[in-house]
C-alpha cells in the first residue's frame, strides 16, 4: 500500500502537523479517534510517522496490544448500533446506514443489541461505515453465538478498521 486513494499534499502536511503536535494536543486528538488512553499513548509513542501507512501501522500495533480493559475503554466511545449519538457528526456519519429505515427493523436491532449486551457486557461494535441496517443486524446475529474470547478479537479488528477510517479522515480533512 503505497498510496491512499485520497492522498494529497495537504494530507502530508496534516501528518507532519499531527506528528509535531504538543503531547497534550496530540493526546486530545487521538482520544477523539479512539477513547482508549492506552491506544492513544501507544500511537503517540510511535511518532514521528513517516507516512500515512506508518500511522495506520501504529494503529494496528496499538490495537493488537490492548488489554481487555483497554478494549472496554475503546468501546466506551462508541454509540450503540442503531442509536447514533445525537449531535455527534462522527457517530451519525458512521451509522448513516440506519437513517430512514423501517421502525420494525430498528426494533429488531434494539432487541438484538440488548441480547448481545446482556451476553457480552458491552455494546455490539462493528465498523458501520458503508453498511446498511440490515447487514449490521445480520452481522450481530451471526456473531451472537461467539464465545467471549472470539468476540473480543473480532471487536479488536472492527475497532482497528474504525480507527483507520478516522485517522484517514483526520489526514484528508485537516481543517476538521
Summarize the structure in words.
Residues 1-7 have low confidence and may be disordered. The chain is built from 9 helices and no strands. The chain is 65% helix and 0% strand. Helix 2 crosses helix 3. The protein is an all-alpha fold.
Query: Which structural class fits the helix and strand makeup?
Result: mainly alpha
Q: What is the H/E string?
A: HHHHHHHHH
Q: Describe the largest sheet.
A: none
Low-confidence stretches: 1-7
Shape: globular
End-to-end distance:
25 Å
Beta-strand residue fraction: under 5%
* Rg from Cα: 17 Å
Q: Given the structure, what is the number of helices?
A: 9
Q: State the helicity in percent bands.
A: 55-70%
Oligomeric composition of the shown chains: single chain
Number of extended strands: 0
Rounded mean pLDDT score: 88
Amino acid at each position: 500500500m503505497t498510496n491512499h486513494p485520497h492522498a494529497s499534499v495537504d494530507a502530508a502536511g496534516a501528518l507532519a502537523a499531527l506528528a509535531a503536535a504538543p503531547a497534550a494536543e496530540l493526546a486530545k486528538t487521538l482520544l477523539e479517534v479512539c477513547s482508549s488512553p492506552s491506544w492513544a499513548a501507544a500511537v503517540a509513542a510511535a511518532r514521528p510517522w513517516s507516512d500515512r501507512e506508518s500511522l495506520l501501522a501504529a494503529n494496528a500495533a496499538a490495537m493488537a496490544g490492548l488489554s481487555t480493559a483497554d478494549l472496554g475503554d475503546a468501546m466506551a466511545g462508541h454509540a450503540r448500533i442503531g442509536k447514533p449519538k445525537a449531535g455527534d457528526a462522527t457517530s451519525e456519519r458512521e451509522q448513516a446506514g440506519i437513517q430512514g429505515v423501517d421502525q420494525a427493523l430498528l426494533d429488531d436491532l434494539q432487541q438484538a443489541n440488548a441480547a448481545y449486551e446482556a451476553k457480552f457486557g458491552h455494546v455490539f461494535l462493528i465498523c458501520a461505515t458503508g453498511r446498511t441496517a440490515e447487514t449490521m443486524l445480520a452481522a450481530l446475529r451471526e456473531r451472537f453465538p461467539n464465545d467471549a474470547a472470539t468476540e473480543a478479537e473480532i471487536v479488536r479488528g472492527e475497532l482497528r478498521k474504525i480507527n483507520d477510517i478516522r485517522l484517514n479522515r483526520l489526514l484528508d480533512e485537516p481543517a476538521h
